[in-house]
Amino acid sequence: MPEILFYVFAGTAVGGAVGVVLQRNPVGSLLFMVGTLASIAGIFVLLEAQFLAAIQLMVYAGAIMVLFLFVIMLLNLGHDYRADLKRGLGAFLAFAVTGALGGLLVGQLGGVGENPLYEYLPGPGELDRVFAADGIVGAIARPLFTDYVVPFELVGILLLVALIGAVALAKKGG
Amino acid sequence: MLTEALVLSAILFVIGTFGVLVRRNAIIVFLCIELQVNAVNVSFVALSRYLGIDGQLFVFFVMTVAAAENAVGLAIIISIFRHYQTVDVDNFNLLKW
Amino acid sequence: MTEFHPLLPGLIPLLPLLGFLGNGMLALVAGVRGAAELRAGAGAGKEKLGELAPPPWMRGLPSWIGPGAIGAAFLLTLMNFVGMARSGLEAPAIVRYWDWISTGGIRIEAALQLDQLSMIMMLVITGVGLLIHVFSVGYMREDPGYARYFAYLNLFVFFMLVLVMGASFPLMFVGWEGVGLCSYLLIGFWFEDREKADAGKKAFIVNRIGDFGFLVAIFLLFTSLGAVDYAGVFGAAPELLAYGGSTATAITLFLLIGAAGKSAQIPLYVWLPDAMAGPTPVSALIHAATMVTAGVYLVVRASVLFALAPAGSATVAAIGAATALFAATIALQQYDIKKVLAYSTVSQLGFMFMGVGAGAYVAGVFHLVTHAFFKGLLFLGAGAVIHSMHHALHATHKDWDAQDMRNMGGLRHKMPVTWVTMGIATLAIAGIWPFAGFFSKDEIVWYAGAARTGGYGALFTALWGVALVAAVLTAIYMTRLMVMTFYGSNRTGEREAEHLHEAPLVMTIPLSILAVLSLFGGWLNVPASLQESVFGGFGLLPMSDWLERWLEPVTELAQEIHLSHAGGYATASPLGGGAVLWAGIATGVALVTVGLTFRSVSKRGIRPASESGAPVGVVRGLLYHKWYVDELYDRVFVRPLLGASRIAWRWVDQILIDGSVNAVGSVFKALGWFGSLFQTGQVTTYAFVLTLGALAVLGALLL
Fold this sequence. Notes:
The complex is a heterotrimer. By secondary structure, chain A is an all-alpha fold. Helices cover 75% and strands 0% of the residues of chain A. Chain A is globular, with a radius of gyration of 21 Å. Chain B is elongated. Chains in contact: A-B, A-C, B-C.
C-alpha cells in the first residue's frame, strides 16, 4: 500500500512540476506548484516525516504560495503570457544540459546495487527508535532546542532581517 | 523506498533547473527555484530514515531560510517591476559592469 | 687621570637637527607666504613683489636658532673635549643607541664613537661652523630664503657630525650621503638661476661616483673581515689582511675613490669649482673647512687599512700631489675671487692627501685643522668683499660681476678689517713662519720626502719635489689675489666706490677670530724636529707636538704596521739637509715669492673685466680655461653617456621594453574582450553556465 501511494504522489509531484514549467499563465503555474508541494507533503508522510509534512502544507503550500499569488496579482501579470517560454537554441541547450544532469543523477541514484553509498546505510528503522522515545513532534523539538538552538535563534534573526529588508525594498520611492 | 525517493528528488530538481533556464517571468523562475529546494528536501527526508532525525531538522531550517529568501526575493521583484514595468529577466542585464 | 664618560654625545648632532626642524618650519611658513605674495603680486604688478617685506620675526628667529643650535653643540663638544683631555683616553668611547641593521650575519648598531680624531673633527665642525653661521647672519640677512638657508646649513652640520661621530662605516656613509645632499641643496640655493641649479646637480652626480667606490669598499670590508664597525674592522684587519695583499689594496683603492669624490681630488675634482655658485659662507663651511675634508678624515680613520696597503697609500699620495700641483696652476689664471679660492682648496686638499698617503696621518689632520681656519677665513673675507661689491654695484645698477677681481682693487682703504684678516690668512696659506700654514704644510712636505725609505721611494722623492713647486705656486696665486683685490687703485668706478664699505660687526668678528686662529693655530703641533730651533721658539712655544700626542691612540696601530714593514722615515730630505734647514728654505722661498709676486702684479696694468679680453698666450689660455678638463669630460663621458641614454630611451625603452609590455598587455586585453562576451549580464546565462559547471563537476566525480 505505501508503495502504491508513493508512486501516486510521485506521479502527481512530477506532473505538477512539469506543469509549473510549461504552463504559460503564472497563476496556472502557481496552482501546479501547490499541487506539487502537496504531493511532496504526502511523500514526507510516507517517509516518516509527518511534522514536516504538516509544515510543508501550512507554510509552503499555504503561506508562501499565497505570497507569490499576491505578488502576481499586485503586478497584474495574470494576462501577459506571450512567449514566456524560451524557444530555439537557448531552450535546446537548456534541455540538453538539464537532461544530461538528470540522466547522470537518476542513473547514479537509481542503480541501487552498484552504488557503494547504500552499503553503509544502516537500513530503515533508525527513526522508529527516536519516535518511540519522544513522539513525532518531540523527536524534532528536542534536538532543535538543545543541539541546534544557536542555528535556530540565528534563523529567527534572519527572518526578522528578511522581514525588514522586504519592507524596505518594496517600499514605494525607497 | 529510498531509491525511489532519491530518483524522484533528482527528477524534480532537474525539472526545476530546466524551468529556471527557460522561463522569462522572474516570478516563475523564482517558483522553479523553490521546486529545486523542495527536491533537495525530499532527499534529506528520505535519507533521514536511515541516518537519524538530523535530516528532518535540516529540512526545517531550509524551509525557514526559503521563506526569508522568498520575502526578500519577491520584494526585489516588486522593486524591479516598479523601475522597468516588466519582470522579464531577459530585460535585466545589470549584472554587467 | 679619571675615566672618560661622554657627556650627552647624542645631543651634539641632535641640536643642529632640531635647529634644522625649527628653521625648516619657518622656511615652510615663509614659502607659503611667498607664494601668496606672488599670487597677489601677479595681480598688482611686478614692481610690488620685492617690496613686500616679511615680518621681523621671520628674520629674527632664524638668526638665533641657526647659530644658537651650533653654538650649543660647540659648547657641549668643548665640555666633552675637556673631559677627554683630562682622562687620557686610550680606547675609543663608543655610545650605543639602538640596533640599526640586524639581519643575517650583519649587525650594525646606531652608535657614536668619541675618540681623539672625532673630537678634533667635532671641534672644527662646530667651532668653525659657529663662526660661519654668525657670519651668515650678516651675509644672508636680506635674502628671501633666509630661513631655508639656515635650515640647510643646520642640517649639514648634523650630517657632518654623524659622519665624524658614527662608530661604523655604514653610519659614516649616512653622514657622507647627507652632507652630499646638503651640499647639493646649498650649491643650488639660488635655484632660480639655471647655471647654479646645474652646478648643484654636477656636484651631486660627481659625488655619486665617489660614493659608489665607498660603498664597494664597505662591501669588501664586510666580506673579507665580517665587520663594518671601526672596532671590529681595525681589530681584525692586521690579522686577516696580508700586508700589501690584494684585498687590502682593493679596499683602500675603493675607499680612495670615495675620498677623492668628496674631497675633490683628480679626477673627480671638477664639481668643487662649480660649487662656488652657492652662497659664500656655504663655500667657506662646506667646500673649504669641513665637508671636503671628509675624504682626509676617511683615510685617517681607516689608517690601519692604508698602512696595510702601501700601494693604496702611494696612490693616495700621488693623486694628492698631482691635484695639489694641477689645481694650483689653474688658480694662477682665474679672475673670479671665489674660483681662485676654490682651486686653492682643491690644491690644499691635495696636500692633505699627500700627507696621509705618506703615512703622516697627524700632519694631514693638522693641515685639515689649520686649513679650516685660514681657508674659512679667506672665503669669509671674500664673502665680505663680494657683499660690499654687490651693494656698491647694486646701488648704481651697474651690471658688472661682483666677484671678478679685475673689477676690485684698492679695497684696503675701504675694508681695513677684511684686508688685515685676509692678509694674515694669505701669509698662513703661503706657509710663512709663524703662521698656522707654515707648520702644517711644512710637515706634510717633509713627510712626503721622508716616506721614501719604504717601497715606492722614487715616487715619494718626486712627490716631494711636486709639493715644493705647488707650495711656491700657492704663494703666487694667493699674493696675486690679495694684490688684485686690495691694492692698487680702485677699478669699480667712481660713483660705485662711494658705496664700498666695511662689513658689519657680525661679519668682521668671525673674521677676526679666524685670523687669530690662523695666526696661532700652527702652534698646536710644532713638530718635534723644529721644536728646539728658532721656528719652535727654542722650545718656548706652548703645546708643541700636542696634536701628535693627542692623536697617538688613533694612529698608533697604523704607525706600528708602517714601522714594522716599511721601516722608519728618513731623517734627511732627498737633497740632504735636516728638517730645520728645509723649514728655513721653505719659509724663505715663500717670503721671496710673495714679495716678487707682489711687485710684478702691482706693476701690471689691470683693466676692469669689461675692458679686458681673454688672456693671451698658450699657457695662460690653457690655465684660464682650466686645462679644458670640463670640456674633455664633456666629450669623453657626458656626451657619449647622453647618446647612449638616448638610444636606451628611444630604442630599448620605448620600442623594446614598452613594446613587449604593451604586447603582453594587448594579449590579455584580447583575452578579456573574449571573456567579456560571456558576461551578458543576464541571470539566465549565468544560471546556465552554473548548471553546466555543476554537470561538469558531477560528471568528473561520478564517471
